[in-house]
Amino acid sequence: MQAALGFRDVYAYPAAHLSLTLEGVRVPVSYRNTWCDGFGARGWKLDVSRSDPAIIASTRVTGERIPTSVLVHDLLDHLLSGFDASGHRAEAMALVQLGERTGSDIRGDYLQMVREDVRHGHVNREPLSAFLPAALLTDVPADKQADGRGLMQALQAQLGEVELERRLVRHFFTLGECGKRHAQDSWRLLGLKTSRRTLIGLTLQRVLSAVDRRVEERGVEQLQAVFIVGNEQCALEVERGNAFGLRKRYTSRVGEAWPSD
């Protein structure tokens, strides 16, 4: 397994974050009505990323283009695919997985990261000069490369805004493609079939929606739970669920309609 920046070995996680069982991959998650992390959002976080300052809690909300939520993206396209929870390099690779899993066009996501972060001289987990392709830095003086904002100003002066954005988006696509083999290997090591990842994602979204709707309606302040991800069925097990009027376990078979409650 690769150990380069952005990559993770799925076998190296402690059981508190990811474990393999005969039933499937178990991934603990935490719910808070309000997270005391500077964002104050309601929602869920994978336990593996609870201490990551870049991760904001997410709910069952899916948005307009993609049929699964950010939490499902964090679970399937980051964690189980063997990528870091955050960082622009890891996100570039995870977005390729998202695009393949949902059929969505990820160019807009790359462009957003370019305009909101990279153009301002900022990327997570590494210096901007290390993140950018070497060919882009050829004509930038060494003293300009240490400062992210100064580096981007120099590149824009050389290339112009439109051409710079085009090259940066292309670089994101290149980075994203570099993670495809690693993601396939990670799923295989976990006993999961990439051919079923679209259906697995939709199944996880169903069980998440069922539980998230109920904890929101009941005003639950905090909760611990575990996702169980398998090729044939997925589930969300809720600790102390009875105390909140919840079932212990919400399960759905992969590819089948969500049963009536």
Description:
This protein has 10 helices and 6 strands. Helix 7 (148-159) crosses helix 8. The chain has 261 residues and is of the alpha+beta class. Among the domains are: 19-65 and 192-253, no CATH class; 108-178, no CATH class. It is elongated and about 65 Å long.
Keywords for this structure?
6 strands, 261 residues, 10 helices
Describe what is shown at a glance.
This protein is α+β, with helices and mostly antiparallel strands and 261 residues long. It has helices at residues 70-79, 88-102, 107-116, 128-131, 134-137, 142-145, 148-159, 161-178, 180-189, 197-217, and strands at 19-20, 25-32, 43-46, 222-229, 233-238, 249-253.
Described by strand count, sense and barrel closure, the largest sheet is:
6 strands, antiparallel
- Looking at the structure, what is the overall shape? elongated
Please tally the β strands and state the result.
Answer: 6
What is the number of helices?
A: 10
- Give the integer mean of the pLDDT values: 93
- Gap between N and C termini: 42 Å
Q: Radius of gyration, rounded?
A: 20 Å
Helix amount: 40-55%
- In terms of DSSP E residues, the strand content is 5-15%
SSE series: EEEHHHHHHHHHHEEE
Structural class: alpha+beta
The low-confidence parts are none
